[in-house]
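Q: May I have one protein plus its fold?
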Amino acid sequence: MTEQMIYAQLQPIFDDLFDTGDVALAPDTTADDVDGWDSLNHVMLILQVQKRFNVKFSAHEISGLENVGALVALIGKKLGSA
């Protein structure tokens, strides 16, 4: 799966979770860039991403995520496309 495909599948997750419909995902997007992205919504985001991509992240992997680009790279790694 390409990075572009991962971003395309992440977009509706972000739109639904943060209920804005205008979150422009980019590799450098962080929680500071998205209204409502707090610790609770971070957990919800990770759960939805794991379910959508049928992957599991360790606590260590999750704690190392600094931005959306890192999340996309981790998903790609889990799917064997990175």
About this structure: The chain has one domain: 3-79.
